[in-house]
Amino acid sequence: MEIETVPVSFVFLISDAAAVDKYGDSLRSDIRKSTIVSSHCKSISSPNRMSRPTDWVPSLWMETFQNLLADELEYEDRWNLNFGYQLTNDLTNNERKKGWKIFIECVHGNFQCSSCRKTWSSARVTLLFRYILRGTRGSVTMRPFGQICRSCQDDQFELPGFSEEHVENALLRLFAKIRKNCYGEDTGEDHVGDSGDSEVKTKPHEKALCQACRDGICCQDEEEEEEDDDDN
């Protein structure tokens, strides 16, 4: 009977406890880094329009942006969409002079905790857009804001996933803003891309778990201010 021998190097690794611990720490670190990267930059097939995807998929936004571009901006200017995960809504005087503008949108999104795998939905996911038209080139930079898992509360902001429908509606409202502020059109933008998100009644989310609340630009804060104005 032929007996398979175990490589000496493998025996050495498992017999050295310190080496095992060091290797395990290194492996866990690599896995953690991989998880962080994938949570920000996943590029998988686009979710179904009626599904509740929890993955942040930049390619879905870029593809939808390009698909809508020709119909929504009927000009010869070239526009592109990029992502900035440290983007803020604070424009310097120099940026304002150059023509940069801000658009903050509130949409429905879905989340999944990377630790416990719990999922949840929110009708108040904040998106921040910066956009500019200079000459014949237009540029949009987008930032999605995350939320922390209520069960884990580990200060890990999970990025949201969106259905195709919500992506399309958010971009339609963005294009309406661009037509108004960059081309001077009267767009009647209040009803553009209306997906009914504003009609969804959900409990206010916990501000301590919301990245946009932490940065002071959450759409929930704007809604609360409007309600206070209505009560006065």
From TrEMBL:
GO terms for molecular function: olfactory receptor binding; zinc ion binding. The lineage of its organism: Eukaryota, Metazoa, Chordata, Craniata, Vertebrata. InterPro entries: R-trans_p (IPR026096), ZAR1/RTP1-5-like_Znf-3CxxC (IPR027377). It comes from the Eukaryota. It is found in: Membrane. This is 3CxxC-type domain-containing protein. The keyword Zinc applies. It comes from Gasterosteus aculeatus aculeatus (three-spined stickleback). The keyword Cell cycle does not apply. GO terms for cellular component: membrane. It is a single-pass membrane protein. One of its GO terms (biological process) is protein insertion into membrane. Keywords: Membrane, Metal-binding, Transmembrane, Transmembrane helix, Zinc, Zinc-finger. Its main location: membrane. Residues 106-216 form the 3CxxC-type domain.
